[in-house]
Amino acid sequence: MRGINRDTVVEMFDRKIIWLFVGLTAFSLLVVFLTRGVEFNIRIDTAGDAEMNDMMATLANPVTRAIGSYLSFLIFLAVLGSAGHLPHMLERGRIDFYLARPITRTRLLTARLAGIALAYGTMILLSGAVVYLALVAAHGSAGLNILYLFASSLTAFLIWLSVTALAAVISGSTAMAIMAAFLVWVAQTILSYHMMFKGFFNSEIAGYVIDGLYYIVPKPSAIENIGLTLAYGAEVKDWLPLWTTLPVAFVLLVASVSLFKRHDY
Prior knowledge:
Layout lengths: L1 H13 L2 H18 L15 H10 L2 H21 L2 H5 L4 H6 L5 H35 L6 H26 L2 H18 L2 H8 L2 H13 L3 H13 L7 H23 L3
């Protein structure tokens, strides 16, 4: 397990991925430094309107908005960067080396995925925390609610990892893993308007199909939005994306392990 985790970190250095995160963090700190004299003040009286108050709470907290966007970009980079690790392990010759180790295939794959999650999750947390602390030092607005945003970002990355892992095990291709993530992103974006589509088709059968797709397709971006809402201190109106996506991600991971155990390398 420790050796597999080390292999993941070594690959990050070999592919210069870790330096991309370091460079992005340094550039972000420079941007924060250049904007340290900018002040944001939004005060609108919305007493009695809870929904408007929630909306204005988001507008009045530019630090949370900024770190939310930054974490989303880190997740995007982490998904692209991590998509090649599993296919690289499955290459002919390399997979023979791993399978020769005295561990089961289940443990091998789960250890590899855990190593990817640990390595990239740590990079997301460290880079995000450093930039957040810099934003707080420059603009204020620190609060423990930001932990919701970091937790939701890590959860979203793990969900993306379950998608790319299944695609990688099925195809053994980095390109297919990236395309699978892109297709899921497109699908979740389209299905975020599922209520509008149900009203447009005005058909009971179409409604069932659209609802089924909405429940099945992972929604990591919606989970990020839940964390962002909690970080603002606002009320989450819809927890459904979280409760429907977590079981789907678990099924994808189980399917990845099952297929890996049966594949003839």
